[in-house]
Amino acid sequence: MSQSPTCEIQLLGPVEISSDDASIKISRRVERAILYYLAAEHRPISRTTLIDMLWPETDDIDQRRALRTALSRLRNELPDPEIILTELDRVWIDLNRCKVDLLIFTELYQSLQSVLKAYQEDQTLPAQIVKQLREALSLWHGDRVIHGDNLSSYPEIDAWRESLNRKLSNQRKTLMERLADHYQSAGQLQMALDLFIQLGTMDVLNVPIHVNILDIFTKLGRHQEALNYCDGLEDAFEQKYNMPLPEPILNHCHYARLQLEISKEKNGDKWTLPLTMQLP
Question: Could you tell me the pLDDT band of residue 269, with boundaries at 50, 70 and 90?
Answer without folding.
Answer: low
